[in-house]
Hints:
Elements: H1 3-18, H2 20-29, H3 32-49, H4 57-71, H5 74-86, H6 91-105, H7 107-124
Amino acid sequence: MDLDQLFEEGLKKRKQVLGADYVEKRFESADEFDMIFQDYVTKHAWGACWGRDGLELKTRSMLNLGMLAAMGKEHELRVHLVGALNNGVSKAEIAEIFLQVATYAGFPAALTAFKIAREVFDERGV
């Protein structure tokens, strides 16, 4: 797959997971400098990684939630909670993921993850 195809596949996956409105806003608000990153992340994270056949989108979302919560990446956790819900991850599964985070990465990381998840659930009416 060439880079143009990788971008197109990545853009399709990114919109599917995060929602077209969210993705379009990222591109609309990007200046020339930021567009370098938008292009890169769309090709490599969303095209080359999320575009692979090896895992279902739901599984990828579940992995992301655990990793982002463990690393304390609150903004990206919020974004990927929406993506996880879009990919069929249930509230009960999200709770289990964050309990796993508590056990292996620490209770403060899980506490923050639960807080952010409640905010996202409230915003989305879940």
